[in-house]
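G., the chain you wanted modeled:
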Amino acid sequence: MSRHSLQNKPPATQPIKGFGVAASPFNQVKIELGLALILGIVLWLAAESITASITAQLLLLAGYGLISASWLIFRTQRIAQQYDEQKNELIRSETDKSTVTKGKKNR
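Predicted structure as tokens:
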């Protein structure tokens, strides 16, 4: 190995950075998705204890899946709509500021 390639390596005693998620308005939805998956797995494992009928088990799991998916879609659309409203409001305020600034320069 060349001396130059050894200089580019970080020292072995350097602490390893932890796992992190970038800030996002959808982080709450990601948590809810994880919770829905965990509850779905628990329901899947418990479905046989809840009812012996295979048809009822399938209906139970399908119903849970539809309700979970609907909730996640609703939350995602609501957050996206709020984000768009905030973005449009910011653009409007920036446009108003530039209009006021141009009006003062023209006087």
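The mean pLDDT is 84.

Shout if anything looks off.
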